[in-house]
Automatic annotation (TrEMBL):
<keyword id="KW-0325">Glycoprotein</keyword>
<dbReference type="InterPro" id="IPR048347">
    <property type="entry name" value="Sarcoglycan_C"/>
</dbReference>
<keyword id="KW-1133">Transmembrane helix</keyword>
<dbReference type="GO" id="GO:0005794">
    <property type="term" value="C:Golgi apparatus"/>
</dbReference>
<keyword id="KW-0472">Membrane</keyword>
<dbReference type="Pfam" id="PF05510">
    <property type="entry name" value="Sarcoglycan_2"/>
</dbReference>
<comment type="similarity">
    <text>Belongs to the sarcoglycan alpha/epsilon family.</text>
</comment>
<keyword id="KW-0333">Golgi apparatus</keyword>
<keyword id="KW-0966">Cell projection</keyword>
<comment type="function">
    <text>Component of the sarcoglycan complex, a subcomplex of the dystrophin-glycoprotein complex which forms a link between the F-actin cytoskeleton and the extracellular matrix.</text>
</comment>
<dbReference type="GO" id="GO:0005856">
    <property type="term" value="C:cytoskeleton"/>
</dbReference>
<dbReference type="GO" id="GO:0030425">
    <property type="term" value="C:dendrite"/>
</dbReference>
<dbReference type="InterPro" id="IPR048346">
    <property type="entry name" value="Sarcoglycan_N"/>
</dbReference>
<keyword id="KW-0206">Cytoskeleton</keyword>
<feature type="domain" description="Dystroglycan-type cadherin-like">
    <location>
        <begin position="49"/>
        <end position="157"/>
    </location>
</feature>
<dbReference type="GO" id="GO:0016012">
    <property type="term" value="C:sarcoglycan complex"/>
</dbReference>
<dbReference type="InterPro" id="IPR008908">
    <property type="entry name" value="Sarcoglycan_alpha/epsilon"/>
</dbReference>
Length: 443
């Protein structure tokens, strides 16, 4: 392998004057050769071992600068490249990470971070995490293995644990060593413990929080759990006061005396602080006492024999169907009797109605019937005042518009001049004067 890379460099050697067969390497060629050999050995020895403690926050940063030299063409000394790189992490042999380990990377131009709190169940068991780096420009990949050897911590777990919610931080910002150190320093200044450890960090989005609006540089928030070996200070206990609890219920900010020590860098929501005292927690484990409700130990399972008697389900079938059917039939008969056999009828209604009401009702019916008959048979002639007597020009007598047997129901209510036969259009004023003369003459 190394020999192949040696000759791939071209002719790295030159003849010298110290004798035939003597070779030397130029400085530029030797630098390139050493960089290539270093890259090869870094690919072979790419495993990293870390030793976190159970119950203590574990943070491992996947630096982009560390993986840039893994992608060809390999950068020269002093050359700066800014390719987008993303990471994929999984437990060896599995598609995902362990349950206690989380991963975050905001953009392909930022470093990735593995973080979490190892549990006591994983102590002594090496956890191998496969880290695959993707160069999004050249589509090259590089794979490293991270071997996590979880060690047992002394006095684990710490008996007094407090969880703070910091509003003005994101999880990757809080995972930075200097920021986390400043926060632990502020907590230690308020709490005054002998031992203080960061137990876990959780993003507010993992707790059901909502994604903030991209305005005013709003943050999603982060939960930070710390543990100590001494009881909570009076400042932290102020959250449990009835006055502060009332203010929290009214969505008001509680009054905390030590808030000024955090407010310079961390904006803490004191209504969401959680104080857990594991020394006062009663163990829920109870010794099992054999008695009522607990079956005795019967040994190994013995399946039933094949000589079981067959069970007749005919009676159960009849009871299941016959009883509801009988109830439904009785209800149907009762309803049929009420609807069909208990009707009063018209005769009984008339017998119970006073005679005067019956007479009024019958008279109304007769009048209605008579009016309807009259509207169907309109045999009455039209008034003479509405009909012309003679033609205004020729003087001829105009016959009536309809005969006696003419059906007047189809006649329009108003007659127009176009409907009248042999009628000539004359001015309105002449028609009025002619009508006046006819009235005066008595025709």
């Amino acid at each position: 392998m190394l020999l192949f890379w040696w000759w791939a460099l071209g002719d790295p050697c030159a003849w010298t004057g110290k004798g035939r067969g003597t070779r030397r390497m130029s400085p530029a060629t030797s630098g390139t050769f050493l960089l290539t050999v270093f890259t090869l050995f870094s690919k072979v020895h790419s495993d990293r071992n870390v030793y976190p403690s159970a119950g203590v926050l574990f943070v491992h940063v996947l630096e982009r600068e560390y993986f840039k030299g893994e992608f060809p063409p390999y950068p020269k000394p002093g050359e700066v490249s800014n390719d987008p790189i993303t990471f994929n992490t999984n437990l060896m042999g599995y598609p995902d990470r362990p349950g206690w380990l989380r991963y975050i990377q905001r953009t392909p131009y930022s470093d990735g971070v593995l973080y979490g709190s190892p549990t006591a169940e994983n102590v002594g068991k090496p956890t191998i995490i496969e880290i695959t780096a993707y160069n999004r420009r050249t589509f090259e990949t590089a794979r490293h293995n991270l071997i996590i050897n979880i060690m047992s911590a002394e006095e684990f777990p710490l008996p007094y644990q407090a969880e703070f919610f910091i509003k003005n931080m994101n999880v990757e910002e809080m995972l930075a060593s200097e920021v986390l150190g400043d926060f632990l320093g502020a907590v230690k200044n308020v709490w005054q413990p002998e031992r203080l450890n960061a137990i876990n960090i959780t993003s507010a989005l993992d707790r059901g929080g909502r994604v903030p609006l991209p305005i005013n540089d709003m943050k999603e928030g982060v939960y930070v759990m710390v543990g100590a070996d001494v009881a909570f200070s009076s400042c932290l206990r102020e959250v449990e006061n009835p006055q502060n609890q009332l203010r929290c219920s009214q969505e008001m900010e509680p009054v905390i005396t030590c808030d000024k020590k955090f407010r310079t860098q961390f904006y803490i929501d004191w209504c969401k602080i959680s104080l857990v005292d594991k020394t006062k927690q009663v163990s829920t484990y109870q010794e099992v006492v054999r008695g009522e409700g607990i079956l005795p130990d019967g040994g190994e399972y013995k399946p039933p024999s094949d000589s079981l008697k067959s069970r007749d389900y005919y009676t159960d079938f009849l009871v299941t169907l016959a009883v509801p059917s009988a109830v439904a039939l009785v209800l149907f008969l009762i309803l049929a009797y009420i609807m069909c056999c208990r009707r009063e009828g018209v005769e009984k209604r008339n017998m119970q109605t006073p005679d005067i009401q019956l007479v009024h009702h019958s008279s109304i019916q007769k009048s209605t019937k008579e009016l309807r008959d009259m509207s169907k048979n309109r045999e009455i002639a039209w008034p003479l005042s509405t009909l012309p007597v003679f033609h205004p020009v020729t003087g001829e007598i105009i016959p009536p518009l309809h005969t006696d047997n003419y059906d007047s129901t189809n006649m329009p209510l108003m007659q127009t001049q176009q409907n009248l036969p042999h009628q000539t259009q004359i001015p309105q004023q002449q028609t009025t004067e002619l009508s006046s003369l006819l009235l005066l003459s008595g025709i």
